[in-house]
Amino acid sequence: MNKKILILFLGLLIGTTVSAQKSDLQQRAETAIENAKPIEARYTYIRAFEDYVGKGKMKQGVECGVKATALYYRENLYKEAFELLRRIEQSVNASQLDAAEKSALYYMTTKERYTMYSKLHKSASAKEQLNFMETHAQKSNDESVKNDLLYNKAIYYYTLGQTQQGNVVFKQMADKLTASKEYDKVDEVYKTLIASGRRSGSASMVAQSYSSYMAWKDSTNALKTADQINALKKQIADNEVSIAEKDSSLTTRQVIIVGLGILAAALAAVLVAGAIVLLRFILLTRKQKKSIHTLKENNALKAKFISNISAQLEPTLLKMDANLPGVKALLDFSSHIQTLSELENSTDEGVETEETQMPPFCESLMKQIEGDIKKGVALKVEAPRMNARINKEYVSHILLHLLKNAAEYTPAEGKVTLEFKKRSAHTFQFLVSNTGEPIAEELREEVFQAFREVKDLTTGDGLGLPICRQMALKMKGELEIDPEFTKGTRFTLTLHDA
Question: Which runs of E-coded beta strand occur in 291-414?
C-alpha cells in the first residue's frame, strides 16, 4: 500500500512540474486560441511576454511575444505588430543573456519581421531581414536555428523563381539532417516545401520539390537498410568479443553459436525485407511516373480533340449570319477553345519579349475602356517612369481583359486602378483592382478553370480568365486574385525579367 501511495505522489509531482513549465497566462492564451478567440489570445500572450521578461525567462517571453505579433498581422494590424517586435528586442537587449543567446532570440523576432514583409510583398525589405537572420543564426551557434534559416532561404529562392539557388540551399539542409540520420525531419521538410509550392500556385516549385523528394527517398531507403545491416553486424561483432572474454566451455560455445545463427537468420530476413521494400518503392515510383506521363498524354489528346472539333465547326458557322447572337457566341467560343488548346500545348515554349516603357503602355490600355465604364467611375494609372521587358501581345490581352471585367462590375462612382510595381531585381507585377463586391473566396480558383459549368454562350463562355492564366504560365509568370485586398477585387500578374 505504501509503495502505491509513493508512486501516486511521484506521478502528481511530475505532472505538476510539467504543467509548471508554462505560466498560467501562457496556458490561458493557448486555450483562447483553441476556442477561436484571437483578440483575447493576443492580449494574454502580451501579458505572458511581460510576465516572463519580468522573471528573467527571456526565451519563453520572446516566444509568447512572437505569437502575439503573428495574431496582430493576421488581422492586418502591421503597425502594432512592428511596434511589439521593437518592444521585444528592447527587452532582449536589456537582458543579462550572453551574445549567443541574444542572437538566437533576435533570430526569432527577425524571422517574424521577414514573414510580415513577405506578406506585404516588399521583396527588398524581406531580403534585408533574411540577411539579418543569417547573421543572428551564425552568432547563435545553434544548429536548429541554422537549419531553420536554410529552410527559409530555400523557400525565399523558390518563391522568386530562383530554382538553382533554392536547390543549393535546400540540398545543404537535407544533407545535414540526413547525415545526422534525422530522416523523419527531412521527410517533413520536403512535404512542407511541396505544400508551400501548392499554396503559392508555383508549378515549377512543386515539380522540382517532388523530383528532389523522390531522389532523396530512394537514397534514404538504401541508407536505412545499410544502417540496419551495420547495426546487426556490430551486434554480431560484440557477441564474438563476448565469446572470447567468457568461458570457452563447449556448452557456452554451443549456446553462443546458436545465438549467432539466430542473428544471421535475422540479418538475412532484414536484408530480404529491405530488398522487398526497396523494390516495391521503385516499382511504385515508376508506376506513378507512368501514370503522370499517361495523364499528360491524355490531356494533350483531349485538348487536340476539342480543338479539332472547334476547327471543323468554324467553316459551317462562317456560312451563317454572324449578326445573330447565337452564331456570334459560337464563333467566339470556337475561337477561344482553339486559343486555349494552343496555349496548353505550347506552355514549355518560350515567348519573345521587348523593352517597353510602362507609363504610356499602361495609359493606352486604360483609354480602351473609357467607353465601358458607368457614370462617375474614376480610372487611375500608377506606373513609375521605367522600362520592363515583356511580351506585349500576351500582357496587353491579359490586362485588357481584366480592365474590361473591372469596368463591367464596378458600380457608379467607383474606381478602377491599373498599377505597375517592381518587386525585386528581376520580378515585377501588374495589379488591376476595382471597388465593388469582391469575388467570394470559394470562387477565386474556379474562375480560372475552363468548362466548369454549362451556361448560355450568349452571356459569355467563361474562357477569358483561363486563357489569361495560361498566357501568364507560358510567360513563366502567375495570375491570381489577391486575398489580402478587401475593398473590392484585385488581380495580380507577376512576371520575371530573366
Answer: 354-357, 378-382, 387-390
